[in-house]
């Protein structure tokens, strides 16, 4: 048996850390990676970041949260409550009515800003995990989507300390490459992209531009619907890569709060239904056919969101 990175990273993206670790354990050549998982999650040898002691204490609280949520699997709400209580102690907050999101938005944003860092909290696919970076540049791009071409402002973010939970679980190997915010801007993790590649043009610009378009139409659109439509846009415009393979590994409908995994599941099921099959083998479908089916599913989604 050979190591398949799609299986490994698929488990990480789904937040299924236990399966990712079990998969790695099967391969002697990955003993160092397995031992690293054990050091962090079993023996609680947490990472130290290049920030001061006070900020490292904050980041240790998030690392403990990741262990609770993904390794001990104590439940999302309970893990979040424990994170909130740890942060309250560190920040000297005695008012139990102050919510975790308020602590992030108020105290933590200011605390990191005073050290020259940007801090963005909140949830990604159902889990907390901050994005913390040093530098922001602004550029603009004309982006073609199924409904036409539009100009988008892109913020190029660099000097990351951490970029949420997928980055942490994978020891920096993978992580979000960008996101669209509520103001219509596309945020791009600069170090994650080759700006001349199809990957950047499609998986960052078009994917996030579709998010921005959808949020402008309906700011309350669910994470699953947002990701479903943006992933379909990726499939429509990708001619150099078979992205359906990766989506199949990511697909999971067991965690309703993980919009990425739920959207990937819907896509794989949509392809199977379109082909009249119970299951679909992504590697056996031509890129041209993938583009055609994705276009059909996107058109159907357009009708559904306009209702």
Give me the secondary-structure topology.
Blueprint: H1 5-13, H2 17-25, H3 31-42, H4 53-71, H5 76-91, H6 100-113, E1 118-120, E2 123-124, E3 127-128, E4 131-133, E5 135-145, E6 148-158, E7 162-163, H7 164-169, E8 178-180, E9 186-189, H8 198-217, H9 223-237, H10 243-250, H11 259-275, H12 287-306
Parallel strand pairs: 6-9
Antiparallel strand pairs: 1-4, 2-3, 4-7, 5-6, 8-9
Helix pairs in contact: 1-2, 1-10, 4-5, 8-9, 9-11, 9-12, 10-11, 11-12
Number of E-state strands? 9
Query: If you compute it from the alpha carbons, what radius of gyration comes out, rounded to the nearest whole angstrom?
Result: 20 Å
Mean pLDDT: 94
Helix content: 40-55%
Number of helices: 12
Give unreliable regions as ranges.
none
**Form type:** globular
Question: What order do the SSEs take from the amino end to the carboxyl end, as H and E?
Answer: HHHHHHEEEEEEEHEEHHHHH
Q: Report the sheet-strand fraction.
A: 5-15%
The rounded distance between the terminal residues' Cα atoms is 48 Å
> What class would the helix/strand composition place it in?
alpha+beta
Strand count, sense and barrel status of the largest sheet are:
4 strands, mixed
Described by its quaternary structure, the protein is single chain
**Order of strands across the widest beta sheet?**
5-6-9-8
């Amino acid at each position: 048996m050979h190591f398949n990175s799609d299986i490994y990273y698929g488990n990480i993206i789904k937040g299924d850390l236990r399966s990712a670790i079990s998969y790695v354990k099967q391969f002697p050549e990955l003993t160092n990676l397995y031992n690293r998982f054990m050091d962090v999650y079993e023996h609680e040898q947490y990472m130290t970041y290049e920030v001061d002691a006070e900020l490292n204490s904050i980041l240790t609280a998030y690392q403990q949260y990741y262990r609770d949520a993904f390794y001990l699997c104590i439940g999302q709400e309970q893990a979040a409550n424990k994170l909130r209580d740890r942060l309250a102690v560190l920040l000297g907050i005695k008012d139990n009515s102050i919510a975790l999101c308020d602590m992030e938005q108020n105290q933590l944003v200011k605390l990191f800003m005073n050290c020259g860092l940007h801090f963005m909290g909140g949830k990604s696919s159902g889990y907390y995990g901050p994005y913390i970076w040093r530098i922001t540049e602004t550029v603009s791009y004309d982006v073609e989507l199924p409904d036409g071409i539009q100009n988008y402002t892109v913020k190029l973010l660099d000097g990351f300390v951490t970029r949420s939970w997928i980055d942490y679980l994978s020891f920096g190997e993978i992580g979000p490459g960008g996101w669209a915010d509520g103001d219509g801007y596309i945020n791009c993790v600069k170090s994650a992209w080759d700006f001349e590649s199809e990957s950047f043009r499609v998986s960052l610009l078009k994917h996030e531009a579709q998010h921005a378009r959808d949020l402008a139409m309906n700011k309350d659109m669910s994470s699953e619907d947002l990701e479903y439509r943006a992933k379909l846009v990726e499939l429509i415009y990708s001619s150099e890569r078979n992205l359906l393979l990766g989506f199949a590994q990511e697909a999971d409908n067991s965690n309703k709060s993980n919009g990425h995994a739920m959207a990937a599941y819907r896509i794989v099921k949509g392809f199977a239904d379109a082909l009249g099959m119970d299951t679909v083998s992504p590697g056996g479908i031509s890129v041209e056919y993938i583009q055609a089916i994705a276009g059909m599913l996107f058109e159907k989604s357009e009708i559904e969101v306009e209702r």
